[in-house]
Amino acid sequence: MADDPEPGTVRPGGRTARVRAAVLDAAGDALAETGFAGLDLGEVARRAGVGKTTVYRRWGSPTALVADLLADMAEQSAPRSDTGALLDDLRANARLVRDTLTDARQGPLFRAVIAAATCDERTAHALHRFYEVRVAEWTPCVEQAVQRGELPPDTDAPEVVRAVSAPLYYRFLVSGGALDEAAAERAAHAAVAAAHAGAYRKA
């Protein structure tokens, strides 16, 4: 039998897709409830209603399962806004980040994954890839603003997108500040103001 592909590198169909979806959903629930340290492949299999051997054969380890979960989350995340106005687009981005981090399931799940990434290289790589996929999804909002002449032509578009979510993640992980509508609005307005002022021009 051929070796199984790296989790997250192919999109299975049919029963395989249903099993993957069930296992990833169960893994997300387990992470949100117990954190990465409590993630057990056998328990995930039980929650998903599939055989242990299926989970162990396909994923092999908790880190591989988390990597696939993050890949799936990146793919399933809501598409970017395209309003034709930079501020409105980035406000939508800020609201999406805020809604994700304050969600009763997604918030604890992200906290568990981020904690795991601090001490596990594979999880860290998967988390970095997840974030860069999301940044790339929203980068065209800034690039289009550059093309419209709203921003300096040498603006680093991905950096502007990162500037929107950075203060929200800081509140989520460090300061404990409220992740409310006002915080999301400030994050978007600050990123746009800084971009207009040339703060994100490429070196």
From TrEMBL:
Entry-linked Pfam families: TetR_C_11, TetR_N
Extract the SUPFAM superfamilies matched here: Homeodomain-like, Tetracyclin repressor-like, C-terminal domain
Q: Where is the HTH tetR-type domain?
A: 17-77
Give this protein's Gene Ontology molecular function annotations.
DNA-binding transcription factor activity; transcription cis-regulatory region binding
InterPro entries per UniProt = Homeodomain-like_sf, HTH-type_TetR-like_transc_reg, HTH_TetR, Tet_transcr_reg_TetR-rel_C_sf, TetR_C
- This protein's superkingdom? Bacteria
Binding region for DNA:
40-59
Keyword list (alphabetical) reads: DNA-binding, Transcription, Transcription regulation
Name-wise, this protein is TetR family transcriptional regulator
